[in-house]
Amino acid sequence: MELNITCIPGDGIGPEIVREAKKVLNKVAKCYGHQINYTDILMGGASIDVHGVPLTEEAVETAKAADAVLMGSIGGDTTTSPWYQLPPNLRPEAGLLAIRKALNLFANLRPAVLYEELAEACPLKPEISEKGFDMLIMRELTGGLYFGERRTVEENGVRKAVDTLTYDEKEIRRIAVKGFDIARKRRKKVTSVDKANVLDSSRLWRSVVEEVAKDYPEVALEHMLVDNCAMQLVKDPAQFDVILTENMFGDILSDEASMVTGSIGMLASASLNDTKFGLYEPSHGSAPDIAGKDIANPIATVLSAAMMLRYSFDLDKEADAIETAVKEVLKEGCRTGDIMSAGCEQVSCSRMGDLLAERIR
Ligand code: NAD
User: Fold this and answer.
1) Which of 34, 123, 196, 348 could connect to 29 by a Cys-Cys bridge, CB 3.0–4.6 Å?
2) Pick from 62, 52, 47, 43: nearest CA to 87
């Protein structure tokens, strides 16, 4: 198969971690007989330095022409970098918002996996963490409160602010379909999270999700109120497979789920549109404090590349091979500094990439 991938190395540790992800992808291509064509584009601070803007039209067109986009991370030190003296619409993060919008990426996927070998990093009690967990939060990204009408007014000397939470059934249906499609590739369970005891938008959410569920008889559906879900994530995270939810609930729950893994350098993410196209990136930022030192953990980016193979190219075997390589390397005791623990061998970013690539079979 021919895979056309646009890469955004970005800023800070971005170029280092993308380089390692490419190393692993190239080994996959070699072992499984694929051809990968990469095209790099600039975004964030790297684009500001060259073009004066965080994302150019040409870069967007290049990304649109690809099958998928693999990104490192963008941004610099927000207190010292000159990029943050620019107006907000010209800062590095504006490039990320612009590309998400231009590519119509409405579904955000964030897996939260607790690896047995990293259980020590989990802040939960051992009797909970020892069961492990492997969940995926599917968050609606372009609707709801963050995009609804908003205003601040003053009435009779009293300031008043209004935000509106709007969803139509089409927006709910398309994210629900993504959620069920992905659950079908996993452990076949969807937990739809809402606040249907209070909100009309949640009652519509629940009824549309139920309609979609009829097309997926092999996937079990349960509904959970968002306040209960927040509790269950720390009480019994092993119960979850796919958590399907709207924009603001997903924003909060996905951060909570990442925190319970305890390892920021391990967390992948994907943002998808209604075709197979997606943008894949680690959940962490550009870590300017460790940039250029070859000590960053490339695993979140490598696992994002595995998600790309699975969701944009339907190459499940190849994605499995990457995920297995990560587990093997951890089991052998190799760690980058951020996940280092006593008795393990500390390796550099590039060495971690080599070890992962060697284990692709
Ligand atoms: P950060 O995630 O970059 O770093 C937080 C801490 O985690 C730092 O100590 C860093 O060294 C460490 N860390 C992060 N990733 C690591 C890795 N792969 N290996 C080892 N250690 C790692 O968050 P921050 O410091 O708040 O943000 C830095 C910059 O990144 C800012 O400009 C911010 O806006 C940007 N950012 C970008 C994205 C993105 O590109 N999607 C996301 C979040 C933050």
Assistant:
1) 34
2) 52
